[in-house]
Design goal:
Oligomer: homodimer
CATH superfamily of the largest domain in chain A: Glutamine synthetase/guanido kinase, catalytic domain
Number of domains of chain A: 2
CATH class of the largest domain in chain A: Alpha Beta
Order of helices and strands of chain A: EHHEHHEEEHEEEHHEEHHHHHH
Largest interface: A-B, 18 and 18 residues
Distance between the termini of chain A: 18 Å
Helix content of chain A: 40-55%
Largest sheet of chain A: 8 strands, antiparallel
Radius of gyration of chain A: 21 Å
Number of helices of chain A: 13
Chain lengths: 339, 339
């Protein structure tokens, strides 16, 4: 079972918590300045550090050479948030180290020598941070990691220098979207140094009312402060979103019941569906489940579908390449079977 | 059971066949020139002619004084095509004679002294004509009916003079609508003296791809010719529509399957629905049933719902007046229960 097939704390609103730590080897230039041979050397050193640490880790982690993989497999990893879109394009020495349940993945030779990412279902930032930190410490024991006593960890891009940390949560905020309050929330988060994006990165629209909130600031704050700040914001957001949902339901029970039940009826019967519409209907169903309007649907199922209906992941599941029409049909069939 | 709760020949496309005959008493002016007292006298004479003909007819027919009825009941009769909208407004001497299964209704003192209307499920114009004719003959035996050897039956409006007949079919033509061919079909029917209207009269849009086709010409043709002409047109239309449906399905099976299944999913799960949307979704379901894409749904059920989801009929079924929101909820519940 992959990590996202489970459900975590506050799972009605928080889909996942993620912490990413960037680390670089002191004696090598940053990846964009490496020769192919040196890039491979860096990758080997990092892999070696991980695999030599314990037999458990060696069993637990797979090493995937990006250039040796099928495109579908690489894009599927992007859809599951294991790697970045840029990294999926491949390049010599680019390698992903990923554990069995896909909760921890490390991009080697992306922007930095290694980016350690730990994901958990639900609201579990402390745990994600602990997961990522454990591996970062392992590398620090075994390798010469660039660290400046005043400025912290060195990174290829100055916006990451300091903690080298990006802590983020993926949250479902249909109440804030329906009422239009989301714009003000996003604006106020930006003002205090947090970024809000859609399900798939920088420029993606918030399809299905799913947002990623992450810290922007890495310099002059500690990792613990960053996590604590984000946690506080999430707790505030949870309260706001829950309050709005209750109020919306109190004011227009029939409208909400109709909306979530129609979404269920459509997903239960559609014979083709785009990934965008699927995410939108799944969003309405998720809202219905959280309000107790739809029974017998588990948040785990919704999490699995939310990350599983992307074009590439779908093709991986079906086991062969498909054209857009065929994908829309396979997506509808997958969803019907799951609900 | 009402007539429309059954299904008739070619029921996948022809919802119903209807023949209306207008008759007037020679010794009285047309209704719009009658005093209240004389209007009542005309109504009494017509009712008397019907009820005195046989004990069976007396048992079979109810006499409803329009002015004595609740508005909901009158509007519901319009929704079921038993009477015209204008007639439902009431007026002294306006009376409806209607049989138990509502297949025969007579408007007394509408535009003409009596308009006999016979309806049958499916493609059954001969039978509807026979039903109407039987009653017209009865009136001719018992009353002095205005008839001119050269010009035929006298009517209040000259557009009905001659046969005084309006023969019509209610047909479901989603294939012609989806492909856009319907515009040309309507145009060519108009050119040869036939009118095409939506589900509810002159100016109504063809919601749910349901059309009424009726003869326009009553002078210089016989009743039998009129029925034969309309029958021929319906047979042509049936072939066209069936051909298009098959072709649409052959070209885009998934698109059609998706459309009809989504309609089913929505009607099966919606918690509120307008009558217009209900008719549209029922239209898609009807198409799906006719193509064998949806099983276990009977055409009879669709007929009942098509005529049963109007605001007034719905309130009659539920048994109390309702606001628009409540009606939309009751409509959704009624449809869910039936499917």
């Amino acid at each position: 079972m992959n990590w996202y097939e489970g459900a975590g704390p506050e799972g009605d609103i928080v889909l996942s918590s993620r912490v990413r730590l960037a680390r670089n080897l002191k004696e090598f230039p940053f990846p964009h300045k490496l020769s192919p041979a040196t890039a491979r050397e860096v990758a080997d050193r990092i892999e070696e550090a991980l695999f030599s640490a314990s037999a458990n880790l060696k069993r637990e982690f797979a090493s995937l050479e990006m250039d040796a993989m099928e495109e579908t497999d690489r894009v599927s990893m992007v859809e599951k948030h294991l790697i970045s879109k840029e990294f999926a394009a491949g390049g010599t020495g680019r390698r992903t180290l990923v554990n069995r349940d896909e909760s921890i993945s490390m991009m080697v030779n992306e922007e930095d020598h290694v980016r350690i990412q730990a994901m958990r279902a639900g609201f579990a930032l402390d745990e994600s941070y602990a997961d990522a930190l454990r591996l970062a410490r392992l590398f620090e024991e075994k390798l010469d990691i660039g660290f400046h006593p005043q400025f912290g960890y060195g990174t290829a891009c100055p916006t990451n220098t300091g903690t080298g940390m990006r802590a983020s949560v993926m949250v479902h905020l249909p109440g804030l979207v329906m009422t239009g309050y989301i714009a003000a929330v996003v604006e106020s988060l930006r003002k205090i140094g947090f970024t809000v994006r859609g399900l798939y990165g920088e420029n993606s629209e918030a399809t299905g009312a799913i947002f990623q909130v992450s810290n922007q600031i890495t310099l002059g704050v500690s990792e613990e402060e960053t996590v604590a700040d984000l946690k506080r914001l999430v707790v505030q957001g949870l309260e706001q979103e829950r309050g709005i949902r209750k109020e919306l339901y109190r004011l227009q029970p029939l409208t909400l019941e109709d909306r979530v039940n129609r979404a269920y009826g459509i997903l239960k019967y559609a014979r083709k569906i785009s990934s965008e519409e699927a995410l939108q209907q799944l969003s309405d169903i998720r809202l219905g489940v959280s309000l107790g309007l739809l029974r017998n649907i588990r948040v785990e199922t919704l999490n699995r579908l939310t990350l599983g209906v992307g074009p590439a992941t779908l093709q991986k599941t079906v086991g062969r390449p498909m054209g857009p029409d065929e994908r829309d049909a396979a997506r509808a069939a997958t969803i019907r079977d799951c609900l």
